[in-house]
Amino acid sequence: MPEPHYDPDAAISAAGAGGATDLAMDEGETLEKGPGGGPPGPDPAGRPRSLWSDAWRDLRRNPVFVVSGLVIVFLVVISLWPSLIASGNPLHCDLGRAQEGSRPGHPFGFDGQGCDVYTRTVYGARTSVTVGVCSTLGVALLGSVLGGLAGFFGGSWDALLSRITDVFFGIPVVLGGLVFLSVITSTTVWPVIGFIVLLGWPQIARIARGSVITAKQNDYVQAARALGASNARMLLRHVAPNAVAPVIVVATIALGTYISLEATLSFLGVGLRPPAVSWGIDISAASSYVRNAPHMLLWPAGALAVTVLAFIMLGDAVRDALDPKLR
Amino acid sequence: MGRYVIRRLLQMIPVFFGTTLLIFLMVNVMGDPVAGLCGDRQCDPATAARLRAEFGLDKPVWQQYATYMGNVFTGDFGTAFNGQKVTELMGTAFPVTVRLTVVAVVFEIVIGISLGVLTGLRRGRPADTGVLLVTLVVISVPTFVTGLLLQLLLGVKWGVVRPAVSSAATVDELLVPGLVLASVSLAYVTRLTRTSVAENARADYVRTAVAKGLPRRRVVSRHLLRNSLIPVVTFIGTDVGALMGGAIVTERIFNIHGVGFQLYQGIVRQSSQTVVGFVTVLVLVFLLANLIVDLLYAVLDPRIRYA
Question: How many CB atoms within 10 Å of residue A80?
C-alpha cells in the first residue's frame, strides 16, 4: 500500500534477517548451530529452541510488549462485549443535552447531537478493531500467497506481479480511498475493509516475495529438492515457515496504520457513514464544535491514538524479538 | 548510466498508464460522470443521454480512456463541473500545494535530520530514548488528529496563529499546516537518520578519521553525515510525491485551497474530469520523484554502479 507515512524500509530490512533462521525442529532433526549463533541451551523438553520460542521468551520480558498487549486485549474484549463497561446505547441521543460537559453517569459528556460520548467511544472500538483485524488478515493472506508464489516460481508471473505492485504503489492511498469509496454509501465496515485489502496487498506481496526468495536459496530447500520433494511440500514445509516472520512483523505494524486509515477516511466523510459508530466520524463531527466543547474531540481522538500506538508498539516489539541482529 | 536512465524511463510508462487507467476506471465505472452536471437534482433521462453522447460516454471504456489520454498529452484536461478548465484549477491549486509541500520538506530536513543526528550520536542515553518515544507517538497519532489538536491549541486557545489559511496561502500561514503535514514523515526521518548514524559511527572510516586527529565536528559533518544521509535523502525524495497526495487531509483541516481542496470538491461534485486530471498529475509527480531519487542514489553513493 502506498501509505504515505509508513516507511517499511527499516521494518523490512530488519525483519529480513529473521526469515533465514532455521526452523526445522518440527521435523525432529537435530540441527547444528553455527558458532555463536546457537541459543544458550536446550529448553526443558530437550529440544533446541526455535526462533519462535526464543522470540516469545524475549517478548514476555519486554515491558513494551506486555503493556501494548494488555491494551490490545482490553480493546478486543470491549469490542466483543461493549456492554461490559458501557450500559447505554450509542445511538440514543437527547438533543436537549447537546454539548454538555461531564456529568455523573456520563463521564465524557455529550456530543453535538446529545449522544453520550463515553458510550460512543466504547462502541467505536468495535469498528476500529474489526477494520484493523479483518483488513490485516485479508491483506496478509492475499499478499503472502501472491507474493510468495511469485518469489518461489519466478518467471513471467513474478515480472507481472512486480509491475502490478508498482501500479498500486503509484496511487496515494487517501486519494484512492476518496475516489473508490465516495460512490459506496454502505454503513457497514466491509467496503472500507475491501478497499484496504485492495490497496494494501502489494505491500505484503513485496515483502513475502523478497523473503521467499531469500528462504528458497537455503541449503535445506535445495536438499529437499534433491530428495525429490514436491513443490508444494518444499513451499509449505520448508520455505513458508522460514519466510513468514517479516510478513508477520509488517502486518502487525500495518494493522495500526489501517485503523488510522479507516478513521481518516471516516473523517473525510467517505469511510463509514452515520449511523455507524466510528471514532473517525465522531472526530469529524466534533471538529465543528471545537471552540465550545473540546471534550467531544479529545476523547475519541485519544482513544484512537492509544489504539494505533498499541498496535504499532506491539509490531515494534515483535520485530525486535524476531530480529536479534538489531540489538 | 545513460542506459539505466532510459530503462527506468521505459519502465515508468506501463506504471503510469496502469495507475491512471485504474483511477479512470474507478471514477468512470463506479461513479456516474454525468450525475454532477445537473446540479443537485437528478438528470432527466433524455438530458443524461444527450450529455453522454456529447461527452462520448456511450463509447466503450477503453476508447474513452484512449481519447482522454490523447487529450492530456496535448495539454487538455477537460472542464470541471462549473465550466472552468481543469488546467485553470491546476494553475491556482498546485502552487499552493507545492508551497505547503516545500514547507513540510524543509521541516523534515531541518528538524528530522538534526534530531536524528543528535540521538544517533547519543544512542541509549535519556535524550535518545525520549526522542524515540516522541517519534513513536507522533507516528501513531493520525495526521488529522494532530492537525485538529494543533489548530485547537495554537489557533483557538492561545491565538498564536490564525486557525484557517487565507486564499493567498503565504508561507508564514503555511508553517503550522506544513508541520502537521510533515509530522509523521518527520518522525520517520528522525528514526532513519538515527539508525543510519548509529550504524556508521562504528565504521572503520570514522575510527580512522578520529585516529588521525580530526576534530569531532569535522568527523561528523564530513565523514559520518555524508554516508549516513544516503538512505535519508532517498526517503525524503520519495516522500515528496506522497506528501502532495496526502496533503488532502491537512488542506481540509486548515481550509487551504490547494490540490486536496480541488480534488475533494471534484469528488463531492462528481466532476470526474477534475479528479482524473489532478490524480494523473499527482501520479506523474510521484513517479518522477522516484526516478530522481534512484538517479540521485548513484551520484551520492559511488559504490552503486548502473550498467
Answer: 11
Q: Which of A38, A125, A26 is nearest to A79 (CA)?
A: A125
CA dist., res. B7 & res. A59, Å (int): 45
Strand, coil or helix: what is A116? strand
Which residues 134-163 of B have a C-beta within 8 angstroms of A? 136-137, 139-145, 148-149, 151-152, 156
pLDDT grade for A137, boundaries at 50, 70 and 90: very high
Instruction: Give the C-alpha distances (Å, rounded to integers) separating B17 from A1, A153, A233, A249, B12.
Output: 18, 27, 39, 32, 9
Report chain B residues whose CB lies below 8 A from the CB of A267: 144, 249
**What amino acid is encoded at B220 in this protein?**
V
By the 8 A CB rule, do A4 and A172 touch? Answer: yes
Instruction: Give the three-class secondary structure for B170.
Output: coil
Supply the angle between the helices B225-253 and B86-107 in degrees, to the nearest 10. Answer: 130
Q: What is the pLDDT of residues B55-93, one digit of tens each?
A: 667 777 777 888 878 887 777 777 766 677 778 888 888
Give the C-alpha separation, B92 to B82, whole Å.
Answer: 15
pLDDT in tens, A43-69: 555 566 677 787 888 788 888 888 889
Set of chain A residues whose Cβ sits within 8 Å of the Cβ of B244: 172
Q: Do the Cβ atoms of A148 and A192 come closer than 8 Å?
A: no
Write the CB contacts of A257 (distance below 8 Å, at least 6 apart in sequence): A3, A5, A6, A308, A312
Burial class (CB in 10 A: 0-12, 13-18, 19+), A306: middle
In Å, how far are A5, A73, A214, B283 from A260, measured between CA atoms?
11, 18, 32, 23
Alpha-carbon distance values, A154 to A92, B19, B44 (Å): 56, 24, 53
A266: nearest Cα among B252, B287, B96: B252
Write the burial class of residue B188 (CB in 10 Å: 0-12 exposed, 13-18 middle, 19+ buried): buried
- In 3-state terms, what secondary structure has residue A286? helix
Q: What is the pLDDT of residues B152-201, one digit of tens each?
A: 888 777 777 776 777 666 777 788 889 889 988 899 899 899 988 888 88
- Report pLDDT for B17: 85
Which of A172, A175, A301 is closest, CB to CB, to B145? A301
- B249 in Cβ contact with B143 (< 8 Å): yes
Residue A186 carries which side chain, given as an amino acid letter?
Answer: S
Integer Cα distance of A1 and A139 in angstroms: 10
Q: How confident is the model at residue B290 (pLDDT cuts 50, 70, 90)?
A: confident
Find chain A residues with C-beta within 8 A of B191's C-beta: 10
The CA-CA-CA angle for residues B237, B102, B104, to 5°, reads 85
Residue with the bigger pLDDT between A99 and B109: it is B109
In this structure, the number of other CB atoms found within 10 A of the CB of residue B156 comes to 12
What's the confidence (pLDDT) of residue B170? 73
What is the average pLDDT across A142-146?
91
User: What's the confidence (pLDDT) of residue A52?
Assistant: 77
A5 with B188: Cβ contact below 8 A? yes
Nearest CB to B188 within list A7, A184, A291: A7
The ipTM assigned to this model is: 0.80
Q: What is the rounded (10 degree) CA torsion for B29, B31, B35, B41?
A: 150
CA separation, residue B235 to residues A317, B178, B192 (Å) = 23, 18, 9
